[in-house]
Amino acid sequence: MNDKPVTGFTEQDIAAMRLAIDASEQALKRGDMPFGATLVSPAGEVLMVEMNNQNTAQDCTGHAEMVLVRRAQKELGLAAMRGATVYASGEPCAMCAGAMFWGGVGRVVFAASTVQIGEALGGAVLPLRTADAVEGASPVVEVIGSLLANEAVSVLCKL
User: By percentage, how much of the chain surpasses pLDDT 70?
Assistant: First the structure.
């Protein structure tokens, strides 16, 4: 599926989101929940791509964004995340929003919204949107979505 680029998104944004969506597909193939995330430096360099590992790691906190933040801090250090952008195939939950904030991420771009995720997967839903979780944060975390939502939802629907 191809979504039209949303006004304000760059080709770099679209490419980074496609990496996250590809990671969500890989997560699904290995038996995990279909979510992926990409970390991009403030200069536009792709630093890392991760996927959900809740099932394979037997870790209920193994959301793609959490895996990404943990690995980035270990391998790159917190300084690498300062002002970076995380592209998430699904709108990050409150736990992931907090981890990204504490990691210094300055911008979060998501594909499938919380509502779309709930509609596609059913089951438990934490209805706190990412923007609400970081509202009033200092430093500010910019939250933008949806970018390529149809592509992300098509992966979710394969579960």
Answer: 96
